[in-house]
């Protein structure tokens, strides 16, 4: 039997059940991983960090979750090459944990944005949406207040040079640097995006472009 | 010993909270050049000697209390 996909849960995570359901709907087995517990880093085929407001966004979005025990194991798994996907707050957590470069700060317009956006796939991802090729577009919903990607200029150049930009927004909704909606680490096994693929699984949700992300 | 940690947004990062407060103050007819919003954290530490307490606070500020990409911090003994 193949290994399960681990779905991380922190106090305040609120897209956990949607992500769990998205994984199982595409045929994989999923298991919960609680913020206060460590786990066997060799025990999961992939790790998913869903969206929400972990620890109430106290201090900085994702800052406290990034330093919780479950993330020690997640860091070890990532170093071993286990694929890790962060969605929205999961993206913020991975940046704060140092598993992805950059940081997500308050939207330029100061408001929480809840909308559907068009995205461009800049560099293909070998694990999450592995059948999608660079250049394609996807339509996914966003829902965030702190979704504006920021990195210093030389960091941005490194991302561009090493093909670590995953998705960009066709029309920048939040002031993100270089229209960035999603990035990857250098090894390409850790990836994250602000939009919510788990909210675009079926036509009745408004779109189906998210399903490909969970074909693991 | 208590140590205060002042965390402020870096000048090159747009301080959105500061801008919002600034515009509200202006709308209320107040005159000001600029407004910056940061965070102040008070650490009550077991260390009784200032140098040791500052060193502990510095370690906490560097690892958790501030994100060096977007913020700077200053320490003061209280």
Description:
The complex is a heterodimer of chains A (216) and B (78). By secondary structure, chain A is an alpha/beta fold. Chain A has one domain (5-214): Class I glutamine amidotransferase (GATase) domain (Rossmann fold, 3-Layer(aba) Sandwich). Chain A is built from four helices and eleven strands. In chain A, the strands form two sheets. Chain A has a nine-stranded mixed beta sheet with strand order 2-1-3-4-11-10-9-6-7, sandwiched between helices. In chain A, strands 5-8 form a two-stranded antiparallel ribbon. The longest helix of chain A is centred in the middle third of the chain and has 11 residues, at 69-79. Chain A starts with a strand and ends in a 23-residue tail after the last strand. The model of chain A has no long low-confidence stretch (mean pLDDT 96). With 78 residues, chain B is of the alpha+beta class. Chain B is built from two helices and three strands; from the N terminus they run βαβαβ. Chain B is elongated and about 45 Å long. Chain B has a single domain, classed as Phosphoribosylformylglycinamidine synthase subunit PurS (Mth169, Chain: A). Chain A binds chain B through residues 59-60, 63, 67, 96, 102-103, 105-108, 110, 150-152, 175, and chain B through 13-14, 16-17, 19-20, 39, 64-65, 67, 69-70.
SSE blueprint:
The complex is a heterodimer of chains A (216) and B (78).
Chain A: E1 5-9, H1 16-25, E2 30-34, E3 46-49, H2 69-79, E4 84-87, H3 89-96, E5 103-105, E6 113-121, E7 137-144, E8 148-150, H4 153-161, E9 165-169, E10 180-184, E11 190-193
Parallel strand pairs in A: 1-2, 1-3, 3-4, 4-11
Antiparallel strand pairs in A: 5-8, 6-7, 6-9, 9-10, 10-11
Chain B: E1 2-9, H1 16-27, E2 39-44, H2 50-65, E3 71-77
Antiparallel strand pairs in B: 1-2, 1-3
What share of the residues of chain B lie within helices?
Answer: 25-40%
Q: Residue ranges of chain A: pLDDT <50 for 5 or more in a row?
A: none
The CA-CA distance between the termini of chain A, in Å, is 15 Å
CATH topology of chain B: Mth169, Chain: A
Largest sheet of chain A: 9 strands, mixed
Q: Number of helix segments of chain B?
A: 2
| Content-based structural category of chain A | alpha/beta
CATH homologous superfamily name of chain A?
Class I glutamine amidotransferase (GATase) domain
How much of the sequence lies in strands of chain A comes to 25-35%
State the share of residues found in helices of chain A, binned by percent: 10-25%
Radius of gyration of chain B: 15 Å
What is the CATH domain class of chain B?
A: Alpha Beta
- Unreliable stretches covering 5 or more consecutive residues of chain B: none
* Shape descriptor of chain A: globular
The CATH homologous superfamily name of chain B equals Phosphoribosylformylglycinamidine synthase subunit PurS
Q: What is the subunit arrangement here?
A: heterodimer
Structural class determined from secondary elements of chain B? alpha+beta
**Shape, principal axes of CA atoms of chain B:** elongated
The assigned CATH architecture of chain B is 2-Layer Sandwich
In N-to-C order, the SSE pattern of chain B is: EHEHE
